[in-house]
UniProtKB/TrEMBL annotation:
This is PepSY domain-containing protein. The lineage of its organism: Bacteria, Bacillati, Actinomycetota, Actinomycetes, Mycobacteriales. InterPro entries: PepSY-ass_TM. Residues 502-526 are annotated as: Disordered. Signal peptide: none annotated. It comes from the Bacteria. Keywords: Membrane, Transmembrane, Transmembrane helix. The chain crosses the membrane at residues 22-46, 185-206, 232-254, 408-433, 461-491.
Amino acid sequence: MASPVTSKRRGDSAVLRRMWRLHFWVALFTAPVLVVLSLSGLVILYTGPLDSLLNRSLVHVSEGPHTIPLDRQIAVAQQQLGPDYTFDAVTPPGSPDRSTRVDFLAPGALSYPAAESDLTQVFVDPYTGRYLGRRDALSGLVGFANNVHRMFGNDGPQVNLPSLGHLIDSEAYPDATIPVGIGNLWIELTACWILVLLASGIYLWWPRAIESAKPMFRVRWSKGGRLRWRDVHALTGVVIAVILVCYILSGLTWSRYWGENWRAFSATVTPSSEVEAASTPAQLGDYDRLGRRIAWAATGEAIPESTPPGPMAATLTFADIDLIAKSENMVPGYAIIPPSDSTDGGETIHGSYAVVNAWPQRLSEQRTLYLNQFTGETITNATAEHSGALGTATSFGIDMHMGNQFGVLTRIMATAACLGIFVMIGTGLAMWWKRRPAGKTGVPGPASPATRADTPARAKVAIAVTAVVVGVIYPVFGVSLLLVLAVEALLDARRANRSDGEATGVSVTDTIEDSDGDEVPVGALH
């Protein structure tokens, strides 16, 4: 009978063996998406400098003695596109050397959930009124990166999935399903498995008795070969793991499926403060176009109603609203969304102007100013403080994700995380290449019967409970996990029917480090 010490070492080595196999296969599945997200994320992170460099003729102007009225600039932009294009918003210059941007929706443009509207952006010189040019929001390097990073969002093929919001409150969420773009759903699924990748990687890094020589926070450069790459891989992964976990969790909050369900859950558990004014049927989220994002927590805000002071009241000009926005200290670069009127029972419901601070932003800059279209009176001043606790926390996470919350520091962290991903993937490939036997792929096969028998029951229970909890929180992951387990069961059944003489087990020898830092086969511990 084996001693307790020997049994523990065999149990630890069995868990290591199986965790290493999980880590390998999940890495193989998620690595391509991680590369795509990192490359596109770096471009998005530096949107401002890149846009200024690549589109200088559109965004930069020479400062003049005075500007022409904002409404005339909008008219110039409209003339360039024709009446079929719908005026959507205007962004006055954020600084004296910048142009005015006027956004339009193309004829027949579909809105979410059918698809996502790609804005047509027209640029006008605010000093001369000269037309500078136009572009689609998703054109160029930055636009392409945004499109790829969201895997084309809700454009293209879709699937309809159950809505948690409908189960919680069918009146607030009348649709029983949520149409989700397949590409975006794939990103959501992969993001969940990246969490598994990080968790298994941290487990493999964690020091234990059977790997006493394995360092925690240093690289054994003198050892060379696989050990050196292993140390670089582990150290890089541990250093950026917390950042990556935060990025994955915050990114999931605005995925098309889980993000919408999270929005419904957070709005129910910690609702936002209600505006003390009559509202129109429109919401701020109706204006969440590609190319002009709106803060996550502000999406559900209802556009307030404007009460006219008399029957002949005239709507204020955009120049008037711009002056009010400046006097209210809105952050330069804000967008002005025109009022949208509607009819209910034969009566006209007048919308209000919405002045929205540019997104992405710091949480302290999250602000929407709703102004009476006739008087310019502030109906409500919606900030992050009006959001519920979960909505505020989610917005904070997204602001961190976008590299804005703490300015340069956040961008440095985000850049380090993206570059760290490239290091981890490169060193992982190097380890696989050096470890694989000559003429073989070197991929891990199924655990042997001995490894299965040595796996402690407590480890199986802990992993099973964790998998169930994560699968319930992230249903897409849960379904994919059940599918993986079903495939594994089928493969196990096929292997059980093979002849006893056919080899099973792994295609490479799994090893751990002894007290001298040398590698020995796991089987040597049995």
